[in-house]
# Entry
Amino acid sequence: MKKNKLFLVFAAMIVVAMIFSACGSETDAAVNEPADEATLEEVSDEPVNIKFTLWGSETHIALLTEIAEEYRVDHPNVTFEFVSIPVTDYVSKLAVQLAGNDQPDMGWMLESPALGWEDAGALVDLAPYLTDDVDFNLADFSDSSLSLWTQDEALYGIPFSTSPMFIAYNADLFEAAGLDTPSESYAKGEWTWEKFAGDAKAITDLGNGSIGYVHIDEISTNPWRLLVPVMQAYGGGSWNEAGSTCLMSSDESVEAATLIHDMMYVDNSIVKPNEKVDFTSGTVGMTMRQLSWLSSLADVTFDWDFAPLPSGPDGAKPIVGQAAVVVFNASPNQAVAIDFLKFLLNEENSAKLSQFFPQARATVLDAGSIEATNPTLNPESIQTAIIDQIKNGTVLPSHVEYSKIDLAVRAELDKLWTTDVDVAAIMNSACEVMAPYLNQ
# Structure
């Protein structure tokens, strides 16, 4: 009966998330069945293949493979299959796999659809296996870092990445435009979204194909990471903390969206939807990124650095993208998957992961793991744009009905990406189509 219910949930996920995210939810959430009580030692003679899904690069898979090989020293019967799925298709394709006959055992989970997957009963409750495990030391993770993955006494994921968004910039273009860099503006207390917009225009005005800003995502596919940081810094947002009230039509959110719209269509300083311009080309002044991406700049010929997100009228509002390792209820190998999760995210391996993914483990973060694994990065930038922001930032918004909200709202926000539009009317429409899915 439970399998039938989860199959229906996954089918709903697939339909709702045709473009980006998909995760179903039901009023009566399926109850997680505990992992097989057998210990790994009891099944150690049986061959086990762990299928692990992620959206990472070959470099990320190489690190995970290295850690998996270390695990296999004591567990030679266990093999691993790391399956990379593009992040834009990740949740929908994962739902298809879980509804099929070749279910993954464990993998990465994005923050935005997390509540829906938890509510659907698709994830194993890890609390019984981690809470009293002295070696794993769950207390090393702050309550705030686990809050998204916790419902009542249940724990559905362990963050492997708590990665602040920051502004990476081409220092050569800032010098050519006669501007302070974002880091210099931040040090002077002048790094605001208005300053960001002005700097982007000045770089665009250099000509010769220069443009001020390219976004981390294709804007029409995922507008949230473009708008949310600005809206929150202006005192608005997507929805309130309870998930019951839309904030996108507020004056503050409209002002923030107007800033972005005018940058794109008045100043022409943001790369427009469906236009392909890469920051590594050397023609782009700024981009919003996270730590794991910086390795792609190893071979560029221009000087670059990174700074915190700008502040707004409501102050600095750091935004953290968070992803967790989860074990899927559909897995036939839950006991082994849980054991590998413990190994993957122990203190030693968390330090290794910090090369790409800032860790929520306090001992790892405070031990200077990011600096140690990224010796070519500016230590001051690591402190101001990553470590300080982890301690003060908020996770990108999530909602139990996120996939439905995303699909409905994105259709309205698509209307923003053209000239001569009524921004306030579009933001009002976004709230109208969001309303049926908000908690009442």
